[in-house]
Amino acid sequence: MRKLTIAIDGPSGAGKSSLGKALARSLGYQYIDSGAVYRAVGCLAMDKSAPLGDSAKVAQLAMDSMIQEQGDPDDLRILVNGQDVTSRIRQPGASYAASVVATIPEVREAVVHKLREMSQAGGVVMDGRDIGTKVFPDANVKLFVEATDQIRAERRWKEERLRGREVSLEETLTELKDRDRRDRERAATPLVMAPDAILLDTTDKSLDEVLGAALEIVKSRS
Known about the structure:
Elements: E1 5-9, H1 16-27, E2 30-33, H2 34-47, H3 55-64, E3 67-70, E4 77-80, E5 83-84, H4 92-101, H5 105-118, E6 124-128, H6 131-135, E7 141-146, H7 149-162, H8 169-185, E8 198-201, H9 207-221
Helix pairs in contact: 1-9, 2-3, 2-4, 2-5, 3-5, 7-8
């Protein structure tokens, strides 16, 4: 079977990463988390005391840095200039920084270049918010994963609590809606469903059910 490029897009908490990892495992493909790259850039900006709104400085940091994703889907390690930042990029500060720097067009161009470099070998599952519209507009399979705001907030709230962050469900829902707004309203490649993407609503479905549907779609394109 030929190696496909599979793009998964959707808002925060919809289940993109869970599906992407499961799909990569099932197919024996490389899994790439594009959001981790933006988080890494956000961490870089904080480390270098670069104002998140300084587009030129943050974009230069993104272009000059070496960001790598290593390991299998269940143990993906994120390296920035050789340093493992896997745990750090999941902290609240990094999450906020990522959501801000991701609105900068020059940063997005730098990250898109890095993501394409990571995927040159083919046989890739990549999730994010503009994978099917910007990073891989010619992807063999494009999926758009969605769920209700409440369900997405509940999922994200549980994840935050597992990481040790004490936050209420109401706060999580507010943060999620703020992130949605930034993603959908940014000038550079906003979050939209590609015209040729297939919608998967995960609201009342288990991961196995969503994975089964995705595998059927992939099979039809192989």
